Structure formats: C-alpha cells, structure tokens
Amino acid sequence: MRSSENGGLILCGFASEDARRYIFRTPVNTPRPKLPADDQRKLDALHTRLSGLRRYYVGYPCNEDFDFSELLPFFEFAINNVGDPFGGSNIPLNTHEFEREVLADFAEFTHAPKENGKDGWWGYVTSGGTEGNMYGLYVARELFPEGICYFSEDTHYSVAKVLRLQHTRNIMLKSQQNGELDYTDLRETLRIHRDVPPIIFANIGTTMKGAVDSLAKIRAVLDDLAITNSYIHADAALSGMILPFVERPQSWNFAAGADSIAISGHKMLGSPLPSGVVLARKSHVDRIARSIEYIGALDTTIAGSRSAFGPLFLWYRLRTLGREGITKMVRGSLERAAYAVEALRARGIDAWRNENSVTVVFPRPPEAVMKKWIIAPKRGIGHLITMPHVTKDIVDEFVADFAASIAAEKKSRTS
Ligand SMILES: Cc1ncc(COP(=O)(O)O)c(C=O)c1O
After folding, report:
1. Which of 105, 135, 202, 412 holds its CA 20 to 30 A away from the CA of 157?
2. Is the sign of the CA dihedral 207, 317, 324, 251 positive or negative?
3. In terms of Cα–Cα distance, which of 339, 361, 347, 343 is closest to 407?
4. Which of 161, 162, 208, 235 should be mutated for ligand 1, with most atoms under 8 A from CB?
5. In a domain, 42, yes or no
6. For residue 20, is pLDDT > 60?
C-alpha cells in the first residue's frame, strides 16, 4: 500500500481522485490538531511493523487481502447504526440500508427461512463472532430459561464466558479426534437430562481443527430421544463463509435445523475492523424486542451504539467480489490448504485437515518456527490457515522453515 505524509496524516493510496477530494473537503470547525513529530514517527513505525508482519500472519483466520481505500471518504462522518436495522432510528447518520442488504445476502448463504406468516429471519451486523454467539445464546435462554447448553470441548473459549455471564447451566461434551462433537456422548448426556430443554451449541468449523458438528446428526439424536423442545445455535465464525460456496457442504444451516447462526465478517470475507453477522428465526426474536423512545428504535441488538462501518465494509466486499468472486476466493483457499497438507507430508510432517476446511493441523512446531510465524498453538498441535493472503509462496516458505527446524532439532539431539 502506498503512503504519503500530509499535515501529520498518513494517507494510504486512494483508489480514486474523488476519494482524495472528499477527504480534503471535510468541514471541521476546529483545525486538525497537529501530531507531535515523535508521535508521528511512532505512527509510521507502527505502519512499517504491521506491513512486515502481514506475510507471517498464517495462524489466525483473518483475511488480509483487501483494499477499502474507496471507502475512506466516509471516515469524515460520525455514523452510528444504533438500534434495529429494520426499524427506524432517530439518528439518520447510519448505514442501516446497507446493513439490510448485507443481512439479506447472508440469509441466502445460510438458507434462512423465507418471510411467510410467522416464519422468516431477523438479524444484525455484530462486532464479531463472539457477540453473534452471545446473541444466539441469549435468544435460546429467553426461550428456555431453564435450558441446559451443551457444547464440545473444541468450542471457542469465549462461549464458556458468555454462558457464565447469562447464568445458563451448561455441560461440556467430548469431541472426536478430528475435533467434531462426539454424538455418542451427546446422546448419553441428553438421555440423563431429558426433562430439561437442550440448547445445543454447534461448531461449524472449530477454532483449532476446522471441524464441523453435523446438525443432521444432532437432530437425529434429538428425534431419537423424542426431545421436541430444543434450540440449536450454529457458531459458523469462519466456515459460515466457506460452506455456502463449496460443492458438498456439511449439514450446518437453517435448512438443516439451526435456530440461529453467527458468522464473523473479518475472517473469510475480510475487513480491517472486526465485525460479524447474526441471524435467527424471526419467531424466536420477536419475544425479545423492546421499544426505546430515546433512540426511536427497537432495542433488539445486544450492543447499543453499533459500528456503521462494519456493515459498509461487508457490503463493499460482497458487492465488489460478487458471488462468483467469493466462490473463487474460497476455492482458492481450499486448494492451497490441500497443497499445504501435501507439502508438509512430503517433508515428513504429519499434517491433515477436515473436509471443506482451510485449517491445516500439524504437531506443535519447534520454537524457531513459532518465533518467526504467527501461529496459534494449543497443547500438542498447531495450525496454518490458508486465508486468501496466504499464497503458495508463503506456504512453501513456512514448510521449508518447519522442516529445517525439525532437522536442526534432531541434529542437536544426536550431537
Ligand atoms: C469457532 C469460533 N467461534 C467464535 C470465535 C470468536 O469470533 P470473534 O473473534 O469474531 O469474536 C472464533 C474466533 O476465532 C472462532 O474461531
């Protein structure tokens, strides 16, 4: 990215001259305070440091391959998406219209129920996957105040915190070796608590292994035990933007029985600001809405003030890529994941991945690898996530480093 100095402000390569003109047109009553030279240097150093780290950011599922410079003109407005994106608001400086378009796209991706009498979906753009999961669990708790939440040991760490916050009884279940829920443990545990409505927290792509809990298998267990009152929330933080674009997706969406689904925006789609989308069956959501006079809106969301940029950024990605562009991006990532598994295995490293997953799992790498590469280890394993910015060239360098470090460790042990 190009950058140049101007009055203490770093301007990153504008996509259009219009963008530049808008920025300089900004009406400010107070002249922009000048950044002291020392602080300017600090800011520049941060930019240099972040630019250097990008190549090695391979262990977390954040897409770094984007260009939002066309949206820079909007940074002159204090915009706020407070309230329900489908209701009116006293604050017209919002991007609710764009938010609704984003939500409609995600409703299509997730096969959300079509508007029909009491049926239909509702949702909003969140601050990230965690808020989306919190919303889903909140709806579930409102429907079943006495319910018990079941989640596997491979569930994201934030879920236990959310359950603690809202005082929901919960039970952690075993996972299979590949990170997927152990359905036998689910069945046995549900059998013991058949009198209490279950709230199933399903992982649609676990954090460490990219495993998908099958909603069809979960439903089959519930049906088998004749449990009629239940709720399924799908945490599709990363894979929610992968599975709609593959040929043979696992059973994961509303059509497969989800009651709510949360997806992160800054993961596969990509955005410099964290964001996410949560969708839920409308019939469930209607129980929670409260009208608040001060903001002139329905207070349906967890956060009050909400970013108006999150929806704008997601909308921009959806419109510039289009369905075809997203499909190409996702398939490219999956191909590079398959390539990474092959390349690691060719060097004797025991790498594998789940179906439709961009998460390549391997034994915890030596310290030298961990120092150079930004990877997320957990106990005995580590992973590489082939997000769109992780090119074949980067995979090759990572594999070479990994193999060389193992060889060096072996050598030092034998000498
Ligand atoms: C499976 C899963 N769920 C939830 C989250 C939390 O999402 P966020 O970081 O967008 O809040 C993550 C983050 O990595 C995740 O991997």
Report:
1. 105
2. positive
3. 347
4. 235
5. no
6. no
Element (H, E) at 260: strand 260-264
Number of the ligand 1 atom closest to the C-alpha atom of 60 = 14
Local confidence band at 243 (pLDDT 50, 70, 90 cut-offs): very high
Looking at the annotation, which residues are catalytic?
Answer: 357
Query: Model confidence over 152-191: pLDDT tens digits?
Result: 999 999 999 999 999 999 999 999 999 999 999 999 999 9
Probe residue for ligand 1, chosen from 137, 207, 361 as the CB with the greatest number of ligand atoms within 8 Å:
207
- Which residue from 271, 301, 285 is spatially nearest to 64, judged by alpha carbons? 271
Beta strands in 168-219 (DSSP E): 169-173, 198-203
| 15 has a pLDDT exceeding 70 | no
Q: Is the pLDDT of residue 318 over 70?
A: yes
Q: Does a structural domain hold residue 192?
A: yes
6 in a structural domain: no
Number of domains observed in the structure of the chain: 1
| Residues at CB less than 6 angstroms from ligand 1 | 128-130, 133, 156, 158, 203, 205-207, 235, 237-238, 264, 274, 276
| Residue 112 CB contacts under 8 Å (≥ 6 apart), including other chains | 106, 120, 121, 254, 279
Distance 18 CA to ligand 1 centre (A): 36
Which residues sit opposite 116 in a β-bridge? Answer: 119
Can you tell me which residue has the tokens 């919190």? 134
| Residue closest by Cα to atom 16 of ligand 1 | 207
Query: Domain limits at 187?
Result: 96-318
178 assigned to some structural domain: yes
260: CATH: 3.40.640.10
- Residues 304/82, Cβ–Cβ less than 8 Å: yes
Mean pLDDT of 317-330: 98
Contact present, 42 and 368 (Cβ < 8 Å): no
